[in-house]
Write a structure and sequence with these properties.
Two copies of one chain form a homodimer. By secondary structure, chain A is an alpha/beta fold. Chain A contains 17 helices and 16 strands.
C-alpha cells in the first residue's frame, strides 16, 4: 500500500532544477502546457454559481460562455462574473439542448457541468466528442451503459472526463490518505463511507427558497427540489455514492492496482419523505399520497480484487446529523470518523484505547493542504471546492487529471448496480472493469504530493 | 414499534393486588412455580466457572452436578462451589460424552452449557430430550440443521432452550430498548451491531495462560485457544453474531411481529492471525504456515420482513479497541454507540447536532436495571452476567423464558448463512422462519418491565 515514489520525489531525482520543478512540476508531464484556459459553464444553478465565483478568481481562466435555462440563475451567474472582474460571457439558454450549440460554437478548453444528474452524461459525452475536456459534477452517469459511454468516448476522443468529487480533498480525508500511503494502518482491510445527510429540506421547499419552507418539489419546487426528489420516486438504490466512495477509492487504489469486483445492496422501507410531507404539509396535501420507491437507508457492501471490502451507507430522508460515515481499517489500526478516533497498534498511547484523531490529522496533514491552506479557506465545503476546481484547471492546462474517466465510471456505477441488486433481492452483482485490465498496471495518481 | 402493553401494565390492569404482583409477577404466568431449582453445569472452563460463582450466590439454587473433561478446570469449579457454601457436586468427567450420564442420572431442572461451540447443540438437545431445560452459551448451534433441531426438540419436549446472550442486558442497550419502545426513535429503519474485538490474545497463548504470551493453539494452546482458533481455519463467515444481533433483535421484534428474511455477507482477506504469529513467533514458527480461511472483517447485511435492515460486523483478528458497533436508527432519530451520541428530532438541543448519549441513557434507564443495579455491580461484563443468569434461574422456576429457542435459532443461524453467502460469492441467502409463521402473532417477551 505504501507508495515509495511520489511525483515530487520523482522530480527531485530526475531533474537538476529541483526547486524550479517543485514550483511547476506538471511541466515535466506534458507537452501541452497552457498558460491560459477557456472554460465554459453548463449549469449555473447554486452549485454552478459557487464554482463560477471560485473560477473567476483565476486570472488565467477566461469564461467565454455559460449555459442554463433559468433566467434567474443566469442573472446571478452574470453578476458573479461581473463582480469577479470577468468579461460578460455569451449565454446559451434557448432550451435544454442549447449546450450543444455552446460546445459547437465556442472555442473551449473545458466545460464544467453542474446540471441535474441525468444531464451529466450526455453533456460530458457531447463535450468530449467536440474535443473539449470535461469536469462533471457527481454522479457522472446514471446507468452502466452511460458509464461505459463516458469511458469509450474519453478513450476515443483523447479528452478527459474528471469527476468533480470534492470530498476527495477533505482535509481529514487527505491526511488519512497520507497515513495509508505511509503504511500507518498496515495493509488495508475494510473501508466505509457514505452519504448520511438529512436532505428533506433540499428535496422539498416552498418553490421560492432553496431549502425547506414547504413540501413542494418538481414543477412547483425550486432549485434541486425541481429534479432531485423525483429520483426518490423512481429509483431504489444508493443514489449518491461518490462522496463516500471517492475518498476510499484512492486509499484502496481502485483502478490503479485494485478494483471493485461485486456488490450487494439492501434497502429499508421508505418512510421519511412521506412523513415529512404529512408532518409539514398535512395528510391532505397532494404530495402526501406519493409513493416513494427509494428506501430510506441503503447499505451497499463492495468486494475488491485485493480482498478488501467497502461498506457504503445512503441515508438522506430522515432527521440525523450530517456524516459521511468514514472508516478506514487495516492490519495495524483504523480511523473512525464519527467517533473522531484513531487507533494504531504500537503508536497509540494505550493498548485497546482510542486516540483522538486530531494529533494524527495534524501530523499527517497532506502537503497539498499545507501548501494551499490560506487559499482554501472560505472557498466552500471546508476548502474542498478550492482544491477540486484547482485540480480541474491544472488538468485543463495540460497535466494529467488526478481523477479521471475511470474514476468517474467506477464511482458512479455503484448507483445503478445497487438498484439492480435491490431489484433482484439483494443478490450480488458484478462491477464492470472499466479499465479493461489496466488496473493491474496503472499507478496511483491522486494526492501523491503537493501538486494536485 | 411502541409496545403499549407491558407485562407490568398488564398486571396492574388485571390484578387487584398490584403491588404484590410487582414483586413476583411471574406467579401470574405459570402454574409450575418452583421455589428451588436444581442446576447442572456442563463445561466448567473460565466462562463456566464465572457463572458457577454467580449461581452459587442464589440460596434457592442447588448445583448437584458438574461436567467437564479438564481436571484443572474441575478443581477450580469445586473450589468455587466450596467457597460459595454449596455442597460438593457429583463430577462427570470420564470423556466427551459423560454429560449424557449426568443428564440421565441426575434429577435436574436445568443445565447451563458453556462448552466449546460445537457441543452446544448436542448437549442442549440431549438435555431437552431428557426433560431438562437448557441455558446455552452463544452461539447455540453451528449449522442450519442444528438450529432446526433445537427448535423441534424444544417444541416436542416442552422444554425451553434459552440462549444466554448477555449483551441483551447491557445497561445502555436496555435503555435504548426502552427508548425504542417509547417510540423515541419513531419507526425503526436500520440497526447495526457486531463483534469487533481483538481476540488475537484469546486465539493464541503460551499453553499455560489463557491470554497471549505465545502463538500456540489447539492441542498446544490453553482455554479458548484449544478450540476457538480452529474455527478461523475451517470457516469463513461471521463466527460470532449474537452479541451484536441479540440486542437489536429485541428492538426490532424479531420472531415477535417481525423476522429476518435474507442476508448477504462479505469477507475481507485473512491477514491478522498470520501476521500475529509471524510478529510474535517468527516466520519459522510451524503455525506461520497455517492458512486461515476466515476473512478478517466480515460484513453481513440482513433484511427484515417489516422492511428494516441490520448490518453486522465481525472483526476479531486485528488490533482495534473493543466495540459492538451499535447503531439504532428510526424515522425520528438515532443512537450511535461508537460516538456515544444520540439525536432525536425535536428533542435534541440543536438541530442536526449530536447530543451526548449519557443524559438519555440515564433518563431511560431500564426498570430492570433500576431494580437490580446494586446486585448487578461486580457480577461480570458490567452486570450483564447477573441479569442473564437471573433470567435463566427465573425461567427454571417456571416462568416463560425471555429469550427462547426461536431466539437461539435465529441469532445463531446467521453464522452458517453468512458462511454460505460468502461461499457463493456474497449472494443473498434466505433466513429460515423458525417460528413457522408464529412471528406474525407472537408478542414481545424481552425486557418488558422490571421482571426479566
Amino acid at each position: 500500500m505504501t507508495k515509495k515514489i511520489t511525483r515530487r520525489k520523482f522530480i527531485k531525482t530526475t531533474t537538476v532544477a529541483g526547486s524550479a520543478a517543485a514550483v511547476m512540476p506538471y511541466s515535466l508531464f506534458s507537452n501541452r502546457v497552457k498558460t491560459r484556459v477557456r472554460l465554459g459553464f453548463i449549469g449555473t444553478g447554486l452549485r454552478g454559481q459557487w464554482m463560477l465565483w471560485l473560477a473567476a478568481k483565476y486570472p488565467e481562466v477566461s469564461i467565454p460562455a455559460i449555459c442554463d435555462i433559468d433566467d434567474v440563475m443566469i442573472a446571478s451567474a452574470l453578476k458573479i462574473l461581473k463582480d469577479g472582474g470577468k468579461p460578460e460571457p455569451r449565454v446559451y439558454k434557448k432550451n435544454d439542448e442549447d449546450y450543444e450549440n455552446m460546445i459547437k460554437n465556442e472555442n473551449l478548453d473545458g466545460v464544467y457541468v453542474a446540471t441535474p444528474w441525468k444531464w451529466h452524461h450526455p453533456m460530458s459525452v457531447a463535450a468530449m466528442k467536440a474535443g473539449i475536456n470535461v469536469g462533471t459534477e457527481v454522479p457522472a452517469a446514471l446507468t452502466v451503459d452511460e458509464c461505459w459511454d463516458l469511458v469509450k468516448t474519453s478513450e476515443r476522443s483523447g479528452k478527459f472526463c474528471m469527476i468533480m468529487e470534492n470530498v476527495c480533498y477533505r482535509r481529514d480525508v487527505m491526511a488519512i490518505l497520507n497515513m495509508v500511503r505511509e503504511g500507518m494502518f498496515g495493509e488495508l482491510l475494510h473501508c466505509q463511507g457514505g452519504y448520511q445527510h438529512d436532505l428533506r429540506h433540499v428535496k422539498f421547499n416552498d418553490g421560492v427558497n432553496p431549502y425547506g419552507g414547504g413540501v413542494e418539489f418538481g414543477e412547483k419546487g425550486f432549485s434541486e427540489a425541481k429534479w432531485r426528489t423525483q429520483h426518490s420516486i423512481e429509483r431504489n438504490g444508493d443514489l449518491y455514492p461518490t462522496h463516500g466512495l471517492g475518498p476510499v477509492s484512492s486509499m484502496l487504489d481502485i483502478n490503479r492496482g485494485n478494483r471493485m469486483t461485486h456488490l450487494s445492496s439492501f434497502s429499508t422501507q421508505a418512510r421519511g419523505l412521506n412523513k415529512y410531507i404529512v408532518d409539514n404539509g398535512g395528510s391532505d396535501h397532494p404530495n402526501a399520497s406519493i409513493n416513494f420507491k427509494c428506501g430510506d437507508i441503503v447499505t451497499t457492501t463492495i468486494k475488491c480484487a485485493n480482498g478488501q471490502t467497502i461498506m457504503l451507507s445512503h441515508d438522506t430522508n430522515n432527521p440525523r446529523p450530517y456524516s459521511l460515515n468514514f472508516r478506514v481499517q487495516g492490519t495495524k489500526g483504523l480511523w473512525q470518523k464519527d467517533a473522531r478516533s484513531i487507533y494504531v497498534e504500537g503508536v497509540s498511547k494505550n493498548e485497546h484505547r482510542w486516540d483522538d484523531e486530531s494529533s494524527y490529522l495534524k501530523q499527517y496533514d497532506h502537503p497539498l493542504w499545507k501548501r494551499f491552506e490560506n487559499k482554501a479557506e472560505g472557498s466552500g465545503h471546508g476548502g474542498m471546492d478550492f482544491f477540486i476546481l484547482r485540480a480541474f484547471i491544472e488538468a485543463l492546462k495540460g497535466t494529467k487529471p488526478v481523477l479521471d474517466v475511470y474514476d468517474a465510471a467506477s464511482m458512479s456505477v455503484i448507483s445503478p448496480l445497487s438498484e439492480k441488486s435491490i431489484r433482484l433481492g439483494s443478490t450480488a452483482v458484478k462491477v464492470p472493469d472499466f479499465t479493461r485490465g489496466k488496473w493491474k498496471s496503472n499507478q496511483p495518481i491522486f494526492g501523491l504530493d503537493d501538486y494536485a
